[in-house]
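Z., the sequence and structure:
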Amino acid sequence: MLLGGLSTTQSQDLHFSQFTMTPLLVNPAQTGSQHDLRAIMNYKSQWSSIAEPYKTYNFSFDVSMKKKKGKKGFSAMGLNIFNDKAGNAKMGIFQGNLTYAYHVFLTDKSTLGGGLYAAFGQRSLNSNTLQWGNQYDGMSYNPNLLSGEPVSNNFTYFDIGGGVHWKYGENEKYMTGNDQRDFNAGIAVFHVNQPKYSFYDTGDKLHMKEVVYANALIGISNTKFSVVPGIIYSMQGKANELLLGSLFRYQFKESSKYTSFVKGASISTGLYYRNSDAVIACILYEFSKCAIGVSYDVNLSGLKTASNGNGGIEISLRFITPNPFNYSKSRYH
């Protein structure tokens, strides 16, 4: 009853606090926009102090086609798979998305891309762990009584959506200069076909979701520090969510321009705020082509009465190429 009464739990879609580490979950148009190849794994566990922990897994992979000088743009393809299990009944969602995007060169430092996704999903429920009103015999709960609920505990659906993504990057970076400027922004629409979303034959549909976001990496010239702000706003049905904050990045090692033996590395830390819900502490360690991010949500909403302020831990692993620490005059040169 408490969970159902909270406005922050009305949204039907899963989400991660480290939204920059789930690009294809935020917008299919991000496919191939930032890197030639990218693979990310995400895990989140939350509300373990209330009930069976809610666990979410996500894997994404995207690759851009070879960018040739003189071409007007390039294509990219990706795969995004997620699985979510909620509570004692293991109410779950498993979905696989295929994404495609095409990015047009606006200048040698910026692109504008459009992307689409097509997905196949399944919702599931283990009703054997639940107790129903029809199983009350007048004195107590009687598991031998029929629940009167539908026998089917799963169903499948098809889902489509798309978006637009803009990227600008001045990658003239090196440790002593640190004049990097990267900006990303976009808008996406999910569940355009509004697939079925109920275990009952009530005709309930999954609401469309609109997402708007922006993030940046801004180097502080002639220092080893950068600011990494970000904001994302989503609307779905009567629910809405705003998440904003910033990381502060310290690059303590620079890649060698002449050999492959010295690898660049940085560490970032900061806070995000999800409106009327949680404060999120984050830390991100990047080494060469790899990165690991860890965040923890601390509840601020009415749920903290039951959770004692405990929220959820989130872990992200990322591999990208080319090496983001390597000196390059411009991503598209």
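Residues 2-241 form one domain. Helices lie at 2-5, 23-26, 304-307.

Let me know what you think.
H.
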